[in-house]
Amino acid sequence: MTEDHHNPENMLERVVDAIRDAPVPAGPDAESRQRLVAILASREHVASQPEEIYARRRTVMRRTGIAASLLAIAGVIGWLVMFGDSPSRSAFAHMLQQINEARTAVFETRVTRNDSEMMRSKTMLLGSDWVREEMFEGDNHTIHVHNRKDRKGLTLLPTTRKAWLRTMADDLAQQPKNMIVLIREVRESSAERLGTEQVDGKDTTKYRCEHPSGHYLLWVDAKTNLPVKVVVSESRDDAAPAVIVTMTNFQWNVPLDESLFTLDIPAGYELEKEQIGESALDPKNFIIVLKAYARLNGGVFPDEFNALTPGSMIKFLDDPTLPDEARMANYRRKLAEAMERPELANLTDEEWGKHGSEIGRTFAQGAVFLQAISLTSDWHYTGKGVKLGEADKIVAWWAPKEADDQPRMATVLYGDLHTETKPVESLPPNN
Amino acid sequence: VVDWQAIVDEHGPAVWRTIYRLVSHREDALDCYQESFLQASRYAQTRTVSNWAALLKQIACSRALDCLRRRYQSMARMAPLEAAAHLATREVSPAGRAELNESMDQLRRALAELPTQHAEVFCLREIEVMSTADVAALLKVTPDDVATWLHRAKRKLRQTLSAEGYQSGTER
Asked: How far is B141 from chain A (nearest CA, A)?
């Protein structure tokens, strides 16, 4: 850089010129614009709405607690993408090897519905054991620190200075050796190369991959062979996803402040309680969520069920065209009906806040079950077209990957939500 | 009744450009874009809008600056990490471009720290190239106010860039 560039008079002009002349990508797509126009037009007839619509929607999300399932999933997905069972071809294998050898990683996650942000987080991984996530939902800020070797987690709420310590109930993929095991299990056939694209000025190769946690699109840097963007949705139909999780701004092997990775309660924080987490392998909450989905979906189970499906139920519950109070009432009424909890429909905001946490945990556990079961078992969802109550139709089945039983036995879930144990050979594959 | 279809069609691209230049991040820009029109709709519920282009430009600037403030406040909480990330990205970019990108980011950060009116005036005058009279009319202040705030904004931004530039220079 020349002396002239360091002259503050010229420097300011030069930087302003650069901002003014910087390329601007295409704006919102036609569908998003139409949706915005519809909302603006609807507001013409509701002249006295006191709250701004997006802030209000975030309020709805906080109060229901369903967002918690997506918060949980954003973190878990990040971990799986880092270390997990991503399908691969040779370029993928190389990418996964690099990821596996990374000392640190940083990326940002954004959960959106109809282009509107529901929440965002920043994830930092140190070695194979530590994860730190800083999550933002509206004005809420939550920090999670996990140590998967010790199976312990710390949650901090900076605004209220509260802390929670949690011990995980299961030993799921806790040991570093499992990363190598998972990479060996990469499924060559399920990665689909979609071509090349530019992302943030970088030449990338785009892949589509399938995983029990959701449908993945990955953009891999042609030079570094590391991901620069990952998008996960609950539906493969590009037009249909209700919820999309996008991970960007990946950074690898950057120095991280190790003091960020500790389970010590920071000074000034009050420990609320220590708790033992529920088993991630207990299907109880998965079944509750599956039933709620079916009840909202006209009595029919979803075409597919992955880790984003619980959060995607927001599409049934939230009607952004309704005025504020009616929208909230509608939301609570539908959720109460879906969960067969009529008492939820008439709660005060304060009471709803408490129950929201409980519902959030149920949804999060229902989602995490999918992650956990796919690590330990062969997982098959066959619920497409099955109606709630059909006792002879199979919705899902799973069998331990390394069982010695002969014949190999599976847990089978039927349309009336009872379970049976049956030989794997007698069961149908996925839908 | 406001014809929102026509307004979004006519002014949407300019609103998007104004926002994206400042926030330089697609997802943030999408949020600001929607929020800008929603804010405009609230404004239009109680007043008659004679110049939609100017109103939307001012709102877009304001929302983008809000976004920058949130962004840098959030980053401040993770300062060691961001500093490390910054160093990492500088190493892989061509030197000149990396430095310009860094300066643009420094300017955005400095704008986020300016008093709101100073930052808005700077954006509208210098980046959106509006006249002093138009900015004064839009903000309902005098042209002298605009000139004073612009002068103060520039002085502060030059100080910031100069300090940052000096630090960058000494690192190399």
From this structure: 24
